[in-house]
Structures are given as C-alpha cells and as structure tokens.
Amino acid sequence: MTRNAFGCVALVVLVLFSGACPGPVAPTVTNFVINNGASSCATRSVTLDDTCTASPTHYMASESPSFTGASWLPYSTAAPFTLSAGNGTKTVHFKVKNAAGESTSVSDTITLSEPLVPDVVGMTEAAASTAITEADLTVGTVTEQHHATVSAGQVISQDPTAGASVALGSAVDLVISLGPVIVPNVVGMTEGAASTAITEAGLTVGTVTEQHHATVPAGQVISQNPASGASVAPGSAVNLVISLGPVIVPDVVGMTQAAAETAITGAGLTVGTVTLQHSATVPAGHVISETPTAGSSVAPGSAVDLVVSDGWTALPNMNYVRGGGSLTLLDDGRVLFIGGRLNGL
Q1: More confident residue, 143 or 21
Q2: Which of 1, 197, 243, 292 is exposed most, by the fewest CB atoms within 10 A?
C-alpha cells in the first residue's frame, strides 16, 4: 500500500495471467476446386483454384493422399497441375502452409475424359485423316513404305496406337503402304547395274552364281530368281546367275585320249564320238584331230569328237627287191606301192 501526493492510499493490484500466448494460426482453405469447379475435363492440364486465410506461403498437390513425390511450391491462388494419364475420376489433394510451417490439406475430384485415338489401321489415308480430325486430334508425320500384304494407299501402322488417351489436338503419325515391292527385270544387265537396280527397289542381292553361256556375254545376268514382275516383301533377296561367256574348246590334239577327255570335261564340255585311225606320225593312243576345233566358242555341255591314232601297220616279211618303184605308207594306214616288186608277193 502506498500514499499518493493527495494523501490517498493507492492499492497496487498485480494481475498474473497463466498459460502461453496464442501461436500462429494454420491457414484455412475456405474454397478449393479444380478448373473453377468443373465436373470433367478433356485434358490432363488443370488449374487448382483456392481461397485461403492466414497468408499461406507454399502449397503442394498430388493425387496421392500422402503427397508421395510432391514438393512445396510458392503459393498461388490458381496453381497449375497435371493429372495422371488414363481417363476416369481423379482426386487431387491440396495442402497449404504458412511461414511458421502450419499446414492444412483439402481435396477435390474431377473426371478426365481425354480423346481416345481411333483405330485407322487398314483405312485409306484420306479416311484415316478424317477419323483423326473428328476425334479432335491432328494428323502428324506421314511416311510411306512398301508392304507385302497391305494394299497401296492404306495405313500400315499408327502412333499412338488405337485406344490410347491423349490430349486434345495431339498428333497421330501414320505409315502408309506403297504396296508390295515389284522385282525389277535385270536379265542382260551387268552384275553391277543389276545390283543397283535391285537395291534401289528396296530388295537385296541374294546368291550370285556363275556359269558359261553360248550367247550371253561374260559379266551379264543370265537369269534371276524371283523373276521380274513378281510381288515380294521389302528386303527380299533376288538371286542372280552371271555369265562367264561361251565355253572355249580346248586344244587337245597330240594329247593322249585320257588327257584329252579330262581337258574337255574340265572345260564344261562332253566327249563326243571317238574314232580310231592309223597314223604314220601320231603315236597310238594320241589325238589326231578334234571337232569343233580348238578355240571355238560353244555352248556349255557341247560334245567334242575325237580321232585317236591306233598307230600304223608294218608290212610283214616284205621288202623291196627290184624295180624302180616306190613304197609309201599313207596317214590312213594304206600302203601306196608304185612300180618294182616286193618279195613274198
């Protein structure tokens, strides 16, 4: 108790308050909707509209109630958000916090109804384009390629595939068939020119074999398989037979019959008729002549006839004794006797 200047007694009363002072108040979300409260949307990109009290500083949003993978972002009253893929009802959870870390979460739902990519495989390009644009999509890149079974002008494949849910205006790429590959005619071409024509047609050069030919010059194509004009799948192999030119008859005159026959068959020819004949100059068993002659150009497998020497026959017990005649042994084995006389006759 104290006395003041007027002599009065003043009572000083100390009032004590118990308990802590009120702390920061968590922000309150007074309104939260997706896309201004729309019940559905045709695109995954949406806006989270909210009204909060207590000055929030950050927000996070997720379709997971535990906000898995979400992170705090600077607060916005119209926050952008991307829904997960796939049509259906989506629930978005929204959390805000203030500078003190006090937070509040709310949620809202919206039905996603993105366009579904139509199935255009097998359609003509024009029909496919119409179906795509009617689905509120756009035609993307159009490429062309050959196909063994899909007719020219029809869709072989599309990307994205049919049934996929995509954003409005998304592009659908198409692959259009040019039809099957037609095998070009390369018979008579050089091997190099034939190979170029085959690869430019979208095919590959297959097995290349060589053989002699009586009329097709060396290095040119005798035949092909598949034949020209055939419809085949892209990348198919075309086999070629290349000419080695005509067979040249080897020179076998003077050889033994066995050696001559080996040379003939080794040249891709056959041994024809073999005739024996006496010869005063060609040893027995050796070739006197051949037909066709050496160096002739013939077809593979042609026959070469041979005349082979069987030697010459001596005149037994005969000798020239008198007279002014002469004795000559001819190549065919006959004896020419002119004038004089032979003993024993």
Answers
A1: 143
A2: 1
Length of the chain: 345
Task: For residue range 91-112, list pLDDT tens digits in order.
Answer: 999 999 999 999 999 999 999 9
Q: Can you give the CATH number for the domain in which 67 is found?
A: 2.60.40.10
Residues 6+ apart with CB under 8 A from 316: none
Q: Identify whether residues 78 and 150 lie together within a single domain.
A: no
Q: Distance (Å, rounded) from C-alpha 64 to C-alpha 84?
A: 11
Q: Which of 83, 112, 141 is the last residue of a domain?
A: 112
Strand ranges of the sheet holding 303-309, from the earlier edge strand across to the other edge:
270-277, 303-309, 287-291
Q: 258-272 pLDDT, tens per residue? A: 999 999 999 989 999
| Residue 184: Cβ within 10 Å count | 18
The count of structural domains within the chain is 4
- Cβ 330 vs Cβ 338: under 8 Å: no
Structural domain span for residue 304: 248-309
In 3D space, the residue among 217, 222, 228 whose CA is nearest the CA of residue 242 turns out to be 222
Q: How many CB atoms lie within 10 A of CB 141?
A: 10
Contacts of 127 (CB under 8 A, 6+ apart): 120
Q: Is residue 33 part of a domain?
A: yes
Residue with tokens 């160096």: 295
The rounded Cα 65 to chain-centroid distance in angstroms is 48
User: Domain boundary residue among 243, 258, 275?
Assistant: 243
Nearest to 232 by CA among 209, 198, 195: 198
185 and 172 both lie in a single domain: no
293: domain CATH number is: 3.30.10.20
